[in-house]
Amino acid sequence: MLARHLRAEDPSIFPAGPWDDVPDSELPTPPLREGLGRAHLKVSTRVPLAQAYFDQGLRLLHLGWGAEARRAFAEAARQDPELAMAYWGLALTRGPGARHATARAETIARALALSEGVTDAEQRYIVAATFLADKGPANGRHGFVREMEALIDRFPEDAEARLLLAGFLSDGYEVDGRPGAGQPYAQALLRELLRTHPHHEGVHHAWVQVMVDSARPEAALESARRLRLLAPRVGTALLGSGRLLLRTGHLREAREVLEAVVAVDDAWLAQEALPETAAPVAGLALRLLSLVCAEGGRYGEAQSWARRLRTRVESVTPHSAQGLVFAASTLSSLHLRFGFWLAAADARVDLGTGATPAERGLLSGMEVYARGLRALEAGKLTEAERACDELDALHPPLTAERRGEGRTLCPRDVARVVELAACELRGALESRQGETARAEATLIKAGRLERRLRGVGPTAFSRPARETLARARIRSGREDKAVELAEALVQERPGSGHAWFLLAEVHVARGAFSEAAQAFASFLACWSEADPHLPELRRAHTFLSSSVVRSRAVESASC
Predict the structure, then answer these.
(1) Does the chain have fewer CB atoms within 10 Å around its N or its C terminus?
(2) What is the DSSP letter of 434?
(3) How far apart are alpha carbons 176 and 321 in whole angstroms?
(4) What is the DSSP secondary-structure string of 465-514?
(5) How many helices (H) and strands (E) does the chain have?
(6) pLDDT of 12-24, one tens digit each?
(7) CA distances from residue 21 to 4, 136, 214, 355 in whole angstroms, order as listed
(8) Where does residue 97 fall: left (phi above 0), alpha (psi -120 to 50 degrees), or beta otherwise?
(9) What are the backbone dihedrals phi and psi of residue 182, each rounded to the nearest 5 degrees, phi first?
(10) Residues 6 or more apart from 183 whose CB is under 8 A from it?
(11) Is the backbone of residue 11 left (phi > 0), alpha (psi -120 to 50) or beta?
(12) Three-state DSSP class for residue 392
């Protein structure tokens, strides 16, 4: 999608791509590939290979694989140096930020110089792209949208133009759940495209992307499943499908799709003879696989995915400090999810002397938070207070650092993650100290911080803030408020055994044993393949057994 590519890049285990600093003219020639979809836009060339490579670049641009789309557009330009639209594609795939501003400007200038004599539609595409290439996506937004609207008005049958506009306008959602300024417009365009072009891989990918963070992700479930058939060899598309399946609670399908992402990326690396650092999204897929397994109670399998990620990072020499931190975060978060505080605190990562403040800040935050949580659960409140103070001191200096660019870890994103951890830990401490009102306020703030985390930043390593808030409300005797929150969490994450277990415990605290039994049953259904030694399983089985005994006793007494 155009918005995701132009405005920010997805989180990356490795901060540099294989051809980031290679000029367009020196990019290696990619093969023409199957399994990328069927998008097509007729352009002004008499060279069949130029048209074929242009279409390949267009398909990959729609599916979010910008680096490989750039290679395809570069080959289209080599096949036909007079093909203006090839340079249009190169300008759009250069990525965000000032680093490539000169290259973007030169490329779009080349497209403009070659546009005399091409079709009216192509000229309009190129003019619209000049606003983004010259001014950037923020300052050039109005001009780009107006030119694309003019193109669509003149050529209403052009699905590619409508899809590019929808992809650019996908603004996501605000903290309170309201759609961004362009989100409803993008959804309206995509709904019509789903009706008129039901076999277009880019349409389904865009629909998945705009709906995955909405309150109705199930509306894109069919698109997520169709992407596996329409674009089976594009990891970025499959990753979006896996995320939506996870969000809607289809954990087994999500696991299958995410495993396919890793396999697709690895096959591409082998074909191109590239190192692990070049994999587009395999690292993120491994992180999500660990999360999928954790939601289903498969702690052992989740650890194996997390360790596979770390092995992947350590296989590259010299080691990437950013990759080591992301791998450590994945494993530490997993241990915390299941309450293994000692394992979470034992990160054991040597970043070396060249690590950035963001990398060191994230690692320090994880270590301090895990240590503080361990102290809190052991009843060592003074030690937990010291950990809160250390976390509070960590994030302000990170906020003052320069913003990261491209796929490098942004210090300000790390600052947000560390601030969230500090807030969650302090709220839990205040609840343990009996400071009910203060704990409530602190944890509500933590929940807001959690929702404000950018999707392209590092994953939060702290416990979910709203789960902690629900438990704090149980502790303070506010079970009715706790049940509202637990029910909301179950609605948002219907496949999460952790959410169902929390809801069951809230009902137990309320004395609503029938509702608790139903929630425990749903929990066991989510954890049907869970590791048998986990204490949550014993708790659920014990409760349900006692519920059956109580029910039979009541029936006997009534007889």
Answers:
(1) C
(2) T
(3) 35
(4) HHHHHHHHHHHTT-HHHHHHHHHHHHHH-TT-HHHHHHHHHHHHHHT-HH
(5) 26, 0
(6) 788 778 888 899 9
(7) 20, 20, 36, 21
(8) left
(9) -100, 0
(10) 169, 170, 171, 172, 173, 210
(11) beta
(12) helix
**Would you tell me how many other CB atoms lie within 10 Å of the CB of residue 377?**
13
Say which amino acid occupies 298.
R
pLDDT in tens, 113-171: 999 989 999 999 999 999 988 887 788 899 999 999 999 999 999 999 999 999 999 88
The pLDDT-based confidence of 557 (bands split at 50, 70, 90) is very low
By the 8 A CB rule, do 91 and 111 touch? yes
CA–CA separation, 224 and 239 (whole Å): 10
Cα 96 from Cα 405, distance rounded (Å): 8
179 bridge partner residues: 173
Which secondary-structure segment (H or E) carries 102?
helix 101-114
pLDDT, residue 552, reads: 47
Q: How many residues does the chain have?
A: 559
Closest of 202, 127, 139, 115 to residue 166, by C-alpha? 202
The separation between CA 281 and the C-alpha centre of its own chain, rounded to angstroms, equals: 11
Tens digit of pLDDT for each residue in 182-208? 899 999 999 999 999 999 999 999 999
Compute φ and ψ for 17, nearest 5 degrees: -85, 170
C-alpha distances out from residue 329 to 131, 296, 322, 392, Å: 39, 19, 11, 19
How many other C-beta atoms lie within 10 A of the C-beta of residue 109?
A: 15
**DSSP state at residue 403:** P
Which has the closest alpha carbon to 167: 412, 372, 3?
3
7 CA to centre of own chain: 15
Q: What tokens does 138 get? A: 């923020």
∠ Cα 282 410 321 (to 5°) = 60
With tokens 């990398």, the residue in question is 359
What pLDDT shows up at residue 427?
97
β-bridge mates for residue 173, sequence order: 179
CA distance 498 to 483: 14
Summarize pLDDT for 348-366 with one digit per residue, the tens: 788 888 889 999 999 999 9
Using alpha carbons, select from 155, 165, 2, 24 the residue that is nearest to residue 86. 24
The string of pLDDT tens digits covering residues 75-127 is: 999 999 999 999 999 999 987 667 788 888 999 999 999 999 899 999 999 99
